[in-house]
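Below sits my pick:
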Amino acid sequence: MSPWDPKLTRRRLLVGAGVAGAGVALGLWRLRSKGPEVVVAPKTPAVEYHGVGDVWREAWKWDRVAKGSHNRANCISACSWNLFVKDGVVWREEQNAIYEAPRPDVPDFNPRGCQKGACYSDLQASASRVLHPLKRIGPRGSGEWERISWDQALTEIADKMIDIARESGADTIVHDHGTTNIDFGPDTAAELRLASVLGASVLDSWAGVGDMPMGPVQTWGMYNCEGTSDDWFRADNIFIWVGNPVYTRIPEAHFLYEARYKGARIFVIAPDYNASAVHADLWIHPKLETDAALGLGFAHVLVRDRLFDADYVREQTDMPLLVRKDNGRFLRGSEVGGGNDEVLYFWDEKAGRATVAPGCQGEGGRSLALDGAVPALEGSFEVKLADGSTVGVEPVFERLRRHLDDYSPEKAQAITGVNPSVIEQVGRELGSGRRSMIFASWGSCKHHHSDLFQRTMILLMALTGNQGRHGGGVRVAAWWAVEGFGKMAAAEPHISVSDKLRILSKVVRGMTPRDYEGLFEEFTRWRTITPLMPFLYVHGGYKDAWDAIGDTDPSLKRPFSAYVQESIDKGWVPIHPSPERNPRALFFTGSNPLRRWPAPQLARAGLWPKLDLIVSVNFRMSTSGAMADYVLPAAAYYEKDSIKYAQSYVSYLVVCEQATKPLGESKCEWEIFGSLARRLQERAKERGVSEVPAAHGATVDLSKIYELWSLDGEYDPANSRAAMDKMLRGTSMVEGIGFDDAVKVGAVKITKQGPYEPLHQTASDYDPNDTYAPHGWFVDQKLAWPTLSGRQQFYIDHPWYEELGEVLPVHKDPPAMRSGLPLRLTGGHTRWSIHAIWRDHDLMLQLQRGEPVAFVSPSDATPRGIEDGDRIRIRNQAGAFEAHAKIAPGAQPGQVIVYHAWEPYQFPDWKGQQEPVVAPWKALHMAGGYGQIHYRMYYAAPGHGPRGAPIDIERVGGPREVQA
C-alpha cells in the first residue's frame, strides 16, 4: 500500500511506525508500539496530578532553568530561550532577553522569539515523534515498519553502504542535508564530516530550496549581503520587495517599524496585500513577476533626471568601462596589446585616453582607487588596437541609458500595470539622497527570473550610492563565521603540492575577497559537492519535463538540453555521481525532499527506484521518512547541546544546552553518525574490505573510516559536549569562550570579525559598539569586488548572456506565460511553521484554518462558482492537489496563494502542493568560465523557482450555480 493510496491515512502511517500511540499528558509519555522489549528504566516517583489547578499551583517551581533554542530548525533568527525543567520535562519556555543595543541611539534586539518557539516543548512530545529505530518491512510508503535495535540498524545500514561503495563507488552514496535541519554545532558537523571522509556525494541544496541569490553572484561575485538587523533602523527609505517580514522575520520586524517612528518611509512591493503591506506608507503591486521592469522604470527616472551619484558610479561600478561598438564586448588588454582578456579599460577624461581599470581581474591590483583619474560615464571614443586598426568604444553607462529608454514610466506601466506617476514618485524618492535599503530576503530568489529582479535592485542601490553604507543597500542574508564548526565538519581535502604553494603565496600577501572566491572554486573541484537541480536533471527523472518547458523559452537559441550538456562537458557545473553512474543510496537528515523538491512525483518515479538504501534521520516522521527504508530517531532540540546557526541579524552566538534526556531511544546526530562511522570500519574489517573507488579517480579506505572521522579517537561519539567545547574554543569571534561559560547566558556577544567563508562574506570590518552593514571593504577601503571588472558588474559579456539577451538587466516573461493556463500559483513562507516542522502541530493549526488552504481572489473564485471554505482542485498538466479556498480580496486577480510546507500527508491522497510545481530553471545558470560566472560550493547554481507555476482551479464536486 502506497501513501498515495487514499486508504492510508496519516494516523495509519504513524500507527504502523509505532509512534501514533505516543502522547504527552503533563510530561508523562504513554507509548504503544510493536517490537522487542527495551530495558525498563528504574522507577521514578509518580507525578501526583488531580487537575489543572495542580499545574497552576506548581507553575513556578522548577528543578532548573536551561538555556536553549531551536537549533536544527531552519529559522534564521537565532533566539535564545529559557527552558523551565521539572521532573525531567521541559514544561514551558520563555524568551531570554539578554541582548544589548550596541549604541544608545538604536533599539536593542529584545524580545527575540515567536509562537513556534514558544510551543516546541509540546511539539517534541507530539504524535509525530519517532522514538525507536525503524526498518521498512513492506513496500516503500506502505506504512509497514518493524522496530529494531540500534545495533541492528547500524549494522544493516553499514553493510549496505559497504556493498554499494564496493560495487559502484563511494560517491554513489548521496547525502541531502537540505537547509531544514542544520545547526553550527557538533550534530551537523558529524554528518558532514562522515560524508566528507567517505567521499559521498553531497547535494548542494542552497539553490535547490530556492534560496540562491543569483543576481548578487552575477553582479558582485558573492551573495552575502546583510548585516545586523538593528542597522535597518538607520535607513530613511525601506523597500520591502518580494518579502513579507511580518510573517518570516518576526524577531527582526520591529526594527522596520521603529525606523518608521523616527521618520523612515516604508514601501512594500508585492502583488498581494500581505501582512507587511498593512504597515506600508506606499504599497506598490505590480503584475506577477514583472519586478525587473518596475525596477528598470525607477532606474530610468534616476538616469533621465540625473539623480544618480556620479562619483560612486565611476568608482564602484562597471559603468565607465569601455565596450566596443562593433561587437558589444568589453575592450580587452589582449586587443590593445600588453594585456590579457581580463584587463579592462575606462576613458580617463583627465588624461584623454583609455586607461587600464584598477582592480579588474587581469590588472593584478587589489584596489579600486582611481588615484586622480576621472573615468568618463558618457561619450564616444576611438581606441587604436594592437593590429593597427581603430575601434569605436563607449562606456557601459551610455549603453545603459539607451537600454533604459525601453523602460520609461509609460512603457513600464504596459508591463507592470503600475501607474507612471507612482514610478516617477518612487524614482525621485530613491534619488533624493536619503538612505535607501531594499529588504529582499529569500523571497526574491524563488522566481524563474529572480536574478533579473535582483540585478535591477542592485542597480538602483548602486546608482544612488547606497550599497555599502549603513542603513542602505540590498539585503538578503549573511552568516557569522563559526570556524570551529567548519574545521570539524570537513576532513582535509587531498590537495596537490602545487595547489598548496599557490594558495600559500596568496595567504602570505594577504587574501582578498577575489582570492577567497577563487579558493572556493578550487575547493569545489576537490570535493563531491553537486547542485541539486542538475542532479535531479541527470539522475532524478526530471530531464524530460524540464527540457519540454525550457524549449518553450523564446530567448533560447538552442534546445535547453544543449546548454546543460555543454556546461557538464566543460566542467562548469559538477555532477556527482557522474552521469553514466546511478546514485544508489540516499541519506537525508531532517530535510524532507518529497515535500520540498519540485513535482516530487517525478523523483518518486525517476530516482527512488534507483536507490538500494534510503535512510531518514529525524526527530519526527515526515512524508519523506515514510518513503525511506530506515528511520533513525534523532534527539529533539531541547535534548542535545548545540549552537544555533549564526545568521548575521543578531550580533550574538546562541548556544543550547541539553535540558532533558532524549526520549525513547533517540540520540543526537553526533552520536548517530559517529557510531555509524565506527560500525562501517568494524564491518569493513570483519569483511576484509579496505579501499573502494571514489570520485576523481581516488579511493577511500573503509577499514580506516572511523579513524578519519574521529581524528584517531579525538572525537568521541558518546561525548558531544567535548566536541561542542572544542568548537567554541576554536571560534575567534567569541574569543574562545568555553561551553560551560557560554550556556550560563545562552547567547554570547560577538566581539570580533571571523574569517571570510562561503557563508560569511559580509566584507566589512566589525565593531561590537556599532550596527553592522555589509560591503564596507569595497566602498570605504576601496578593495576590488570579486568580479571580472573588480566592480559591481551590470554588463556581463559572457557568450551565453549575449546569446540569451541578458548582458544588461532586462525584464523577461517567465515560462508560465506561455502555458495557456489563466492563473499562477504563488506562495511564501508560512507564519505558523518553520518549513514542515510545525505544520501538523495542534497548537499552530488552531491559529489558522487547520488544514491546507488556498487564497483566491474573488474575481477568480466567483466565475468558477467557488465560495469561501469550498474544497478546490489546483491543477495543471504536471499534477494536482486539493485545498480549501479562502476568498481573499488582497490576492491579485490571477494569483492563487498557498503558503509553503504543508506535508503531503495533510492532503487527500498525499498529493501535496508541489505536485503541479515543476519549477523549470534557467539554462543561463549553468554558465561558467568567466570571471564571477562559475559554480563554487554552496552557490552560483541553478535554483528552484517554485513561484508562479501556471494553473487553473475548480471546485471539487463541480461549480456552484453562479448567481446572476
User: Anything to note?
Assistant: The mean pLDDT is 92. The first helix runs from residue 10 to 16. The chain is about 30% helix and 15% strand. Residues 268 and 278 are 9 Å apart (CA to CA).
